[in-house]
Here is the input.
Amino acid sequence: MVAIVGAGAGIALQPDPFRVPDAPPRPAAASAPVEVAASSPADEAPVPLRTTPADGAAAPGPSIIRVNPAAEPASDVIVIRDPSSLGQNLRVAHLPDRALIEQSEMGPLPVRGPDGRRAAEVYARPWSGTRGARVALVIGGLGLSQSGTQDAIGKLPPEVTLAFAPQGNSLGRWMQAARREGHEIMMQLPLEPFDYPRVNPGRNTLTVEAEERQNIENLYWALSRTTNYTGVMNYMGGRFTADQQAFAPVMRELGARGLSYLDDGSSARSLAAALAAESDVPYAQGDIVIDQARDRGSILAKLDELEATARARGYAVGTGTAFDVTVDAVAEWARAVRKRGVEIVPVSAVTVGARRG
Here is the structure.
């Protein structure tokens, strides 16, 4: 009995045998909360996002759990991943990944992470990963109309990808709202059409005649307007996308920064597919512009064409603009098409060159 009591006392005086030892203390500087700007264009104040200090110390403001993935495993380890798990956790999808942001004079620019991660995958919306007919829909023009943007974010199913116009307002706020609702997002890139400047895509259009440096600066301006997007899509650009000398440097820059490219399919002369492959840019091409005729019946007919293409080929990509009639038609069609066994997916789910496992 004495031996038992003695042993118990010995254990009681020892450190908790089941407690994981504390990690070595971090330097004092590391315990300060870190703020990240979700968006910091020149005409808009950044939205501060506060993270909890790594050492657990109390910090003012709300606490946010770290969600960055662990370091990549050793090269001799085989990892099997669920394809739908690679995207950002939807509960924190509005928070930019600091490792994928480079601060510039214009604002935040996307970069590849030190571990090779790319915005094209990190900000992708998860999907089922199952086989079957898939339709990806991308609705652009967000940010130009406050009421139209709000309606698109609120009415469209979260599986619909939303594309922001760089000339829009309050893009940081709208980006966060869209991501909280589960939408994958893209940036639209104003590119020179054949009848430019009579038809003008807007401020800071990339043109064939401009110097390469000027086009890259205009690209940076568009990219810096907000964060958390997977890539860019053309806005107009029939002439620009057909000119290899002008387009190739831009595509190389997108590849270096880990972004994807969506060609809306409106120009048969576009070199986007070949240039994307050369520059390691995940790529997708639209099959149908659904609202060239701004009429509900016409839009629904185009959506039915997309469904037929998806059933025949396995997937289809449709693009449109956030007009009221387009948003309402897509929301109506989406409810019906699910019952017919067609899955609506984010555009990243049909992108060639994306890493899904």
Remarks:
- The two ends are 60 Å apart (CA to CA).
